[in-house]
Each structure stands twice: as structure tokens, then as C-alpha cells.
Write a structure and sequence with these properties.
The complex is a heterodimer of chains A (326) and B (330). With 326 residues, chain A is mainly beta. In chain A, 6% of the residues lie in helices and 51% in strands. Chain A starts with a helix and ends with a strand. Chain B has two domains: 74 residues, SH3 type barrels; 222 residues, Beta Barrel (Porin), CATH 2.40.160. Chain B has an eight-stranded antiparallel barrel. Chain B has a six-stranded antiparallel beta sheet with strand order 4-3-2-1-5-6, with no helix packed on it. In chain B, a hairpin with a 2-residue loop joins strand 14 and strand 15. Chain B is rod-shaped. The chains are: A mainly beta (326), B mainly beta (330). The interface between A and B is large, with 42 and 50 residues.
Chain lengths: 326, 330
């Protein structure tokens, strides 16, 4: 009986207090019981109901869904449709992207990438690719190893650093942690396997320096590894709060290591006759699919165009209640 | 446990100032005051000791927390997307040590050091070591018009190769001290400021001094039906000044990345260890053997044309050196 009575009194008090106060409903599902002091074009000023002689609080109008005044007047806040202040507000917590490179089959490869915001301004980016010379009829640029079937893969893990602005001004902030110009520092590892690489040579007469018209063929597989690092410059856009679009170019250095299944392939058969010296054909491989490599210098370039899908944020198990008050 | 201690400290510090509001700044200052307004960007207050005095406005991001006289307290969380204080944690770091990751492609190893004199003017020194053996296929061959005795023509031989097509070893060093002048913005607005002293577009004015030492360079001379080989070393100096335009970025508050291009004028002095090398050949007096060094174009810190007009460019990655900690913390 006593308990019910106390509850009733508290409820009445709550109703009386609410009836004499204004209410703000925020987009974060908060209900703020207050005395609204000023409703501006950009901000709303209010005082907490329990602190009417306390400080005035200022809240961005964009963060408010609606307000109700003590006299019962209610207004729903409609955001300016041309405003870009909170352009990506709906996806601000979505910080992971899965990407594809739509033009990668042109280079006989299929490429995917994954990006995740580590902290605002610094993102992890991993690109993976599978290459197969049968994907398209276009053969890649591999000089003497042209038209030889090859397949492989590459991986490029890296860190994206967003460039921000050279200047600072009050209230300036990133529109979204996935959007903007960046420098990406990444490592690159590429593996290619060339199958049945053939070399036909004339048979030499053992007693003379001359060679006969009969030939023989040496066949080998070649496994080529390339590894190095790149500095990339790029820019990423957000399309319709669902997709990302990105381009980048990069330059770096790479090393190379080649393994022949048949070591006879790279042997100099006719010592003294340098024009038969086939040595290491694989050292001229330039297209490692994740990047292009200049054979002698190791200087390498890369570039890309990627379209991504922004993965929705995992929903929290316990949703905040709408009537949560502040 | 940590949170409990923090809460106790917070409650304690609030209790101490229970009659007034209190601001706790990130610089560990405690301000007893009457808070008038808590905005999105600022907090307005009057001092407790002078409540009829002026209203003070403090940047919200400079405040750690506040306590009201009622006991209500709130910690201020800085917006993670804010660019206003993007480099706040390294704002006192003013020195950078840099490398040129692609310098090896030009047979050189380059370093540089940058230090802020003030946010508009920076001191910068670049130094490089040159050695033609670093890579076998450098990006830019050191090309010169070496007189070819046999054809009597300026055939455009590479100076780095002598007449037997053997590479001529050379090594050297260069230094480029200069000043970076930050360009800033074309527009001005209230509150607009540099994000960090090390970041932005710049014009750099620098001096350049380069020294190259070429190993044995040989030429033939016919005399009395016999061939004489004349060998020499060449010490070549080039010196001048450059005007550069560039831009520097800060990556993750740790690294800098920078590019620049520049143009300038340089002069050249060459010294032949064997004076006979540059003597005229009586049989062919029209040949100028001094020209072997005159047309050195790649001084590694810059490229030089025969006119003296020179160009330079660079791409550098830097490490922002942490500031020395003060002995006595506030």
C-alpha cells in the first residue's frame, strides 16, 4: 500500500515536472527534459530542468529529431537537404569496406581489397589478387616468356594515412573516416608460376664450333617471387552512403627471386658464344599483377581503381531506449 | 579498480569545490568558476573570485571535464573526426629526420634534416653520398659529350664508360642547406591556423654544392706512329642556388612525406689530376678534352645543363623526432 502510494506521488511529480518543461528528442535516442532558451538556425540552447540556474547547453540542431514545448507545441526538425555538415551521419559508425577492382580482369587478374578504420585518419588496407593468364586472351607483358601459361597471386598489406588539411579551423572535421585523400604505405609480395617454358636450341657438333640444323628442346617451370614496398597516393569517395570509389597510383622498389624446375634451361650451352646464353629469362618478368617492375633497376609502379561496399556496423545487442533521459 | 580510483578522485575534486562549478583543463589546471554556457565548441564561464568580471571562453577540447555545483559532472570527449586538433599530440615536435627512399635509383644515398625556426620559416639541410657502384642501372646516366678521337666527332659517349666500354667509377657528395618558407592559404578566416608547423605547401630557397670524383679516365693520343694512353682523375664541383616548390604531409602523427621540384642556376669547376689530358692534340687541335667534364649533367643533388640552368626534385619520407621532455612536469 505504502509502496503504491509513493510510486503514485513520484509519478505525479514526474508528470508535473514534465508538464512544466520542454523536451528535446535527439537522434541518439535521448530524451532531454529541459527549458529551451533559444532555437537558432544551427543550434538549440537549453537549460537542464534540474539546473535552471546552471549553465546553458548548446546542441546542434542536426542532432535533434523533434522538440516539445511546455505548452504542448511540437515541431519536427527537418534537416536542410542541401546541408553537407552531416552528409554521412547515417553511416558514421560503418568503418569496414570490401572492395573489388572492376578492371582487374583486363590484366588477367581478379583483385579484392579489405579496408578497416584503425583510428580516424589511419586505416588498414589489404589487397589480394589471383592471376591467371587464361582469364582473358590478352597476354601480359613478359617479353620472352610471352604466351606461356602462368598463374599466381599477390598480397599487398598496407596502412592508409589520410592527409587532412594543411590548416585548422574551429569545428573542422573529417566528413567520414573512409573519405579523402591519402598516402598509403604498403608491402607487396607476388608469386607467379610459369608452366612449360620451352627453349629450342640447335645441337652443336662437339668437334667444331659450328652447330647443326637439328634442334632439341629444354622445358622448365619457373616460379618467380617478387617483394618490396610502395608509397601510394590516392583518393576515396563515398557514393550514396553505401559504396566507395577509389583511385591510387604508387611507386616503390621490389626485389625478385626465380626458381627453375629444370636448371639446364638457364645454362649457357655454348660457352664463348654469348648469343646463345639464355641465362635467366624470368628476370625480365615485368608484370607481377599487383605491380609492374622494371627488370634491371627494381623500380616498380602500381595503380588501381576500386569500388567498395561499406559494411554495416554490427548492431549492439541492447538498443538504447527511446525514453532514456538526460 | 582504475575506474574506481578515477571516480573517487573526480568526486573528491568536485567535493572540494562544491560551492562552485569547476573546470579541469587538459593542462592540469583547475578553474573554480560559474559556468554560463556549454556549447558545441566552447565553454563560457566567469571566475569564482570575480563573478561580476568578464566572461571567459575556453575551447571545449582544452577541457578534460567539468563539475557543476550540484555535483553533476561530465567528461569531455573530443570528437574523433575533429581536424581542429588533429596534430595536437605532436604540436611541440618541430624536428624531422628524412630519407629519400628512391635515391638509390640515382646511385646516391640522401638524408635531410628539418627544424622549425618559427611556423613560417624552417631550416632544412639535405646531404647525399654518391657512388656509381650502388646500382648497375641508374635512372639517369651521367652523359657527356666526350670527344671521340677515332671519329673526330662529338659522338655523345657516356662519360661513365671509357673507350673500352668499361664503366668509370665515380663517387662524391653534395649538400643543400636552405630555408623553407611556408606558403599558407590565400584566404583568411577567423580562427584559421596551421594544422602543424611541419605541414603544408612551401617555397624552399637553398644553396647547393656538389663534388664528384671520377676515377681513371683515359684517352688515346697518336704520336710518332705510336699510341700513348693519357689517364686522369677528374674532380668536378658544381655550386649554385635553387628555388623549390613542394608540399609536406604528416602521416599518423609519426611520419612526414614530402615532394618538391626546383629550378636554379649552378656554376662548375673541374680539376684534372693529369694536366696532359686536357692539352691540345697537335694532330687534331680542334678537339676539346676539357669538355669531358664540362658536360657532366648529373650532380645527384641536381641535374645541370651546359648553360648552367639546373633542376632538382625529390620525394622524402621523414620521422618526426619526439620533443625533449621537460624535467619538471606541471
Amino acid at each position: 500500500m505504502k509502496k503504491t502510494f509513493l510510486t503514485s506521488i513520484l509519478l505525479c511529480l514526474f508528470v508535473i515536472v514534465n508538464a512544466q518543461s520542454d523536451t528535446l528528442y535527439t537522434k541518439k535516442q535521448q530524451k532531454i527534459i529541459c527549458k529551451i532558451v533559444e532555437i537558432g538556425e544551427l543550434d538549440i540552447k537549453y537549460k537542464r530542468i534540474e539546473l535552471l540556474d546552471g549553465p546553458t547547453y548548446v546542441i546542434n540542431r542536426l542532432n535533434i529529431i523533434k522538440y516539445t514545448l511546455a505548452n504542448g507545441y511540437t515541431e519536427i526538425i527537418v534537416a536542410d537537404e542541401l546541408s553537407i555538415e552531416n552528409e554521412h551521419g547515417n553511416i558514421i559508425k560503418n568503418r569496414t569496406v570490401i572492395k573489388i577492382s572492376p578492371f582487374s580482369p583486363v590484366n588477367n587478374q581478379i583483385t579484392f581489397a579489405y579496408e578497416k578504420v584503425l583510428r580516424v585518419g589511419t586505416n588498414l588496407d589489404i589487397e589480394l589478387g589471383y592471376s591467371n593468364s587464361n582469364l582473358t586472351k590478352n597476354q601480359d607483358i613478359t617479353g620472352s616468356m610471352r604466351n606461356v601459361f602462368n598463374s599466381g597471386f599477390y598480397v599487398k598489406p598496407g596502412v592508409k594515412f589520410f592527409l587532412g588539411q594543411d590548416y585548422s579551423v574551429r569545428g573542422l572535421k573529417y566528413a567520414h573516416p573512409l573519405k579523402g585523400r591519402y598516402i598509403r604505405l604498403d608491402l607487396a609480395f607476388s608469386y607467379l608460376n610459369y608452366e612449360n617454358l620451352k627453349r629450342t636450341e640447335p645441337v652443336r657438333n662437339p668437334n667444331t664450333p659450328y652447330y647443326s640444323s637439328t634442334t632439341y628442346t629444354i622445358v622448365t617451370d619457373v616460379q618467380s617471387f617478387s617483394y618490396g614496398g610502395f608509397v601510394n597516393y590516392g583518393r576515396q569517395f563515398i557514393l550514396g552512403n553505401a559504396l566507395t570509389l577509389e583511385y591510387y597510383v604508387g611507386v616503390g622498389f621490389t626485389g625478385q627471386s626465380n626458381t627453375y624446375s629444370n636448371n639446364d634451361y638457364k645454362k649457357t650451352i655454348y660457352s664463348g658464344y654469348n648469343y646463345f646464353n639464355r641465362n635467366d629469362d624470368a628476370k625480365n618478368i615485368a608484370n607481377y599483377h599487383g605491380f609492374f617492375r622494371s627488370p634491371n633497376l627494381g623500380l616498380s609502379v602500381t595503380g588501381g581503381f576500386r569500388i567498395g561496399y561499406i559494411l554495416p556496423e554490427k548492431t549492439a545487442k541492447n538498443k538504447p531506449l527511446l525514453n532514456k533521459t538526460q | 579498480m582504475k575506474n574506481l580510483i578515477l571516480m573517487l578522485i573526480l568526486s573528491g575534486s568536485c567535493a572540494l569545490h562544491s560551492q562552485t562549478d569547476t573546470l579541469f583543463t587538459r593542462k592540469n589546471k583547475v578553474i573554480p568558476c560559474k559556468i554560463l554556457e556549454i556549447g558545441e565548441l566552447d565553454i563560457k564561464y566567469t571566475l569564482e573570485a570575480n563573478s561580476a568580471g568578464p566572461v571567459f571562453v575556453i575551447n571545449k577540447s582544452a577541457v578534460l571535464k567539468y563539475c557543476l555545483s550540484t555535483g553533476f559532472r561530465e567528461a569531455i570527449v573530443i570528437d574523433e573526426r575533429s581536424l581542429e586538433n588533429q596534430h595536437e599530440s605532436i604540436i611541440n615536435r618541430t624536428k624531422v629526420l628524412k630519407i629519400h627512399p628512391f635515391s638509390l635509383a640515382n646511385n646516391q644515398i640522401s638524408f635531410s634534416y628539418e627544424e622549425l625556426i618559427n611556423p613560417d620559416i624552417h631550416l632544412e639541410i639535405e646531404a647525399g653520398y654518391v657512388n656509381s657502384s650502388l646500382t648497375s642501372n641508374p635512372l639517369i646516366q651521367n652523359r657527356t659529350f666526350n670527344n671521340d678521337y677515332n671519329t673526330n666527332t662529338n659522338s655523345g659517349h657516356l662519360l661513365t664508360f671509357d673507350y673500352h666500354n668499361r664503366s668509370v667509377f665515380y663517387s662524391g657528395a653534395y649538400i643543400k642547406p636552405g630555408f623553407k618558407l611556408m606558403v599558407g592559404e590565400d584566404v583568411s578566416a577567423k580562427g584559421l591556423k596551421y594544422a602543424h608547423g611541419l605541414k603544408g605547401r612551401f617555397i624552399r630557397i637553398d644553396l647547393a654544392l656538389s663534388w664528384l670524383n671520377y676515377g681513371t679516365i683515359k684517352r688515346y693520343q697518336y704520336a710518332n706512329n705510336s699510341i700513348t694512353t693519357i689517364a686522369t682523375n677528374i674532380n668536378s664541383f658544381a655550386y649554385g642556388g635553387f628555388l623549390n616548390y613542394g608540399r609536406q604531409f604528416i602521416l599518423g602523427n609519426i611520419l612526414t612525406v614530402e615532394y618538391f621540384i626546383g629550378i636554379g642556376f649552378t656554376a662548375q669547376s673541374n680539376f684534372f689530376s693529369n694536366p696532359d689530358y686536357i692539352k691540345k692534340d697537335p694532330a687534331k687541335p680542334y678537339l676539346d678534352f676539357e669538355a669531358d667534364a664540362k658536360y657532366i649533367s648529373n650532380y645527384h643533388g641536381f641535374l645541370r645543363s651546359g648553360l648552367g640552368l639546373s633542376a632538382t626534385a625529390g620525394f622524402r619520407l621523414g620521422y618526426i623526432i619526439p620533443a625533449k621532455k621537460h624535467k619538471h612536469k606541471n
